[in-house]
Amino acid sequence: MRVENSIKNIISNLCSNIVTSLLGFISRTIFIYTLGKSYLGISALLQNVFGLLAISELGISTAIGFSLYKPLAENNNKLISTLMTIYKKAYRVIAITILFLGIILYKYLDFFVSKNQQPKEIFYIYFLYLINIVIGYFLSYKTTLISSDQKAYKLVPIQIKLNIITILIQIVYLLVFKEYLGYLTIQILSSILINIIQNRFITKEYNYLNFSSKDKLPVEEKRIIIKNMFGLMAAKLGDFCVNSTDNLIISKFVDLASVAIYSNYIMIRNLVNGYIGILFGAITSSFGNLVAEGNDKKSLEVFNILFFLSFILYSFEAVSFLCLFNPFIGNLWIGKEYLFPMHVVLAIVINNYLTGLRMPIITMKSAAGIYAEDAWVPFGFAIINLGASIILGKYWGVFGVIVGSIIGSICTADWFRPIVVFKKVFKVSSWNYFKNYFKYIILGFAYMFISIEICNIISVSNIFIDFILRCFVCVFVPNIITILLFFKTPEFKYLYNVFSNMFLSKIVSKFRRKENA
Prior knowledge:
By secondary structure, the chain is mainly α.
């Protein structure tokens, strides 16, 4: 059942992402052509500003989600009801806190972006964003329950239908009115509607639970949640400072137009990472169950396979981004005025590749409930990242901001978290991990260098043929080298068997259906 639910979550989320991302891409294209850099920049900036307010959540959702694994497996409905009731109350307090903090923060918006760069409707835009995030906290808490139960795939049909309708309405609105406030209002009303419908669905699905329980949480459960929350609070702050401050720093020390340009690269990056994230997200719960079984050797074998898979996926992605980012954005999509020079693109790609290689460690860390043991890492990461990004951003602009993030990760999370996970979960030395880690970094950089050199040799006047040839380079160079280097390793053999069995079973089932027809 564990594997089956993971597969269902992966497939359903992939289908949802494919549909909504395609329509979202069309919507963003129309947004750029109708509204321009100013509104695109302020939209990206405000998403980061409200990411700052989201720190108030303090990691409660992750702590509660982890605490739900065991009672869900044991059908302990009383404890589940108690946990969800506490979760609901906590989110209501957070929603009110964010409302007040958001009102106060508006007075300091000029610090992040000067008045002459702000659109005239900034007051309404800001408070529409604020209302959306506050209402979300009142309505969204139940999704943690269905995610922890590995049944989030049941929400996908709701999300697909409403997201498609929303994006189509937004596209029509932009084409007719070319106005941002209405576009944003449609998005917010849709978000509220999706939350309400999901809320009702989950309530019906878990009608045997009491979401207003008066039972008190057992002392041991309370101790675990509080302990995890302290670690997660640090992680939330660190993650914000690492992942959500770039636009704030770029807006402050460069300009809003650069925020708009940067947001396009990040949008494409996040779109692709979303598909990889579905894979890692879907197996986190399964990993949690595996760790709970106490089989350290088996857990380490699965981790090594996951680590190798992340290298394959993120090295291929890194090569593709480096070779295709600018040709796609400049030639095929929105024009050369939305391009960064190649050294900035390289910094974006390297930062993303290093982040990708950390995914297996983060997945295992979350699955094992290791939150307090490395609580200093997010703070150290944040301090070094912010300091380096601000200093380098003053001199090198966007390039310096991104290099600051790379420096922060190398100095903290890239070396300490693996040590903690290997000591606490696998109970072995992390030496082999670091050998593989540096091997994967060197190979990833080599793939990028070889691929970009080959692409630079390509000289075709037709932009479409040029792009297709670049795609062939991106597909074949990293993957063929990986096959040649790793085809004898147990990790490669395992993945090969899994994927070949998946495809062979589909082919066999098709032949059987034809024979029975």
